[in-house]
Amino acid sequence: MTDLKGSYLSKLLTEQNQEDFFLFLERGNWLIFQDAYPQLRLYEESRKKKQNLFHLLPLFGVSSFMEVMWNHFYDNRNHYLISTALIINEQTYIEKRMVQHTQYQLEVLKSLEFQLQDLLGLNQILFPVPKEEKVKVVGQSVHHFASLHDRILLGKRLYQLLFDKDYYDHIYQWAVRQPHTGSRQDFWPDIFHSVNEAAPHTVPEVEKCQLKENSPRIYSPFLEDVWDNTQQKPAEQGDWYTNSKVVRYLKKNELKLNADMQKEYCNTLEKLHFAVVAKGVFS
After folding, report:
1. What is the C-alpha to C-alpha distance for residues 211 and 67, in angstroms, rounded to an integer?
2. What is the pLDDT along the chain (283 residues), one digit of tens a residue?
3. What is the bridge-based pairing of β-strands 210-211 and 192-193?
4. What is the rounded distance in angstroms from the CA atom of residue 64 to the CA atom of residue 43?
5. How distant is the alpha carbon of residue 139 from its chain centre?
6. Separation in Å, CA 98 to CA 60, 95, 125, 211, 226
7. Which is nearest to 248 in space by CA: 84, 6, 55?
8. Distance (Å, rounded) from C-alpha 219 to C-alpha 195?
9. Residue ranges in 219-261 assigned as alpha helix (H)
10. What is the Cα–Cα distance from 73 to 250, expressed in whole angstroms?
11. CA angle, residues 263, 18, 28, in degrees to nearest 5
């Protein structure tokens, strides 16, 4: 979200594009949170009271699929299965409410800017992994966001990566001690800064994961400084679970992941710099 107002995307997208992208992301985050929150609170209360309370899930509009999965988890404590079920649930929950919604199809998903980002691999989900006072980033690239199948598989890969024994403790400790501002300065202050240091008509430039000589840091603002709070309309009613085909995603099929995103993300920054310069030249 803050990238939309940062050094690069703010110059490549119109203000209306930025607003549309933000509202799209905000709606998705809100939908997922308001569906997941009561599930996790009921799990918390079930543990405290030592009593299964998941029969209350329908009162919060939670899918029948998740009621079955939480009941199974309460009896069997299969952490992989419940985590995968939550991934399936959140992505299927937003499918018709957001991804297939006419408004977002027209304003975002079919826009040239969104398709170009998908084509050029400019979207990555990153986890900071600090080791010996240095931070590297691991994660996965986001391709074909409009595909429910691809989003579920992406979620499973991210789960596998996050709980990898080589990464989990480092990521967790970083998250605990680092106040989250929404700025990439939080994990990479050598490259990013929450204050715009660039002079007019100056574009920050990165080469091989380092700022070029005399280049200002990339502007990456705090979330609260560039976006206001929004009011969301109630989620559309209805249970997404109407077809048992999604059950196949519960199968555990871990793969060897190419998790190191440092080089790929730095290449993305170089592409964005080039795009800004090219737009300045040809616009």
Report:
1. 50
2. 999 999 999 998 889 989 988 999 999 999 999 999 999 999 999 999 999 999 999 999 999 999 999 999 999 999 999 999 999 999 999 999 998 888 887 778 778 677 666 656 668 999 999 877 778 999 998 888 889 999 999 999 999 999 999 999 999 999 999 999 999 999 999 999 999 999 988 999 999 999 999 999 999 999 999 999 999 999 999 999 999 999 999 999 877 788 999 999 999 999 999 989 998 865 5
3. unpaired
4. 16
5. 11
6. 19, 6, 20, 38, 23
7. 84
8. 6
9. 223-226
10. 13
11. 80
- Helices (H) then strands (E): counts for the chain: 10, 6
Report the alpha-carbon distance of residue 46 to residue 16 in Å, rounded: 45
What is the distance between the alpha carbons of residues 249 and 102, in angstroms, rounded to a whole number? 27
* Cβ atoms of residues 75 and 87 within 8 Å: no
133 token code pair: 């006072």
- pLDDT value for 106: 75
Helix, coil or strand: residue 210? strand
Give the C-alpha separation, 281 to 275, whole Å. Answer: 10
Instruction: Report the C-alpha gap between 21 and 104 in whole angstroms.
Output: 9
- Given this model, what pLDDT does residue 201 score? 85
pTM: 0.91
Backbone angles phi, psi at 260, to 5 degrees: -70, 110
Alpha carbon separation from 122 to 140, 144, 181, 236 (Å, rounded): 11, 12, 22, 31
d(CA 64, CA 72): 13
Give buried/exposed letters for 40-74 (b at 16+ CB in 10 A, else e): eebbeebeeeeeebbeebeeebbbebbbebbeebb
State both tokens at 209: 């994961």
Please identify which residue in the block is written with the tokens 């996790």: 40
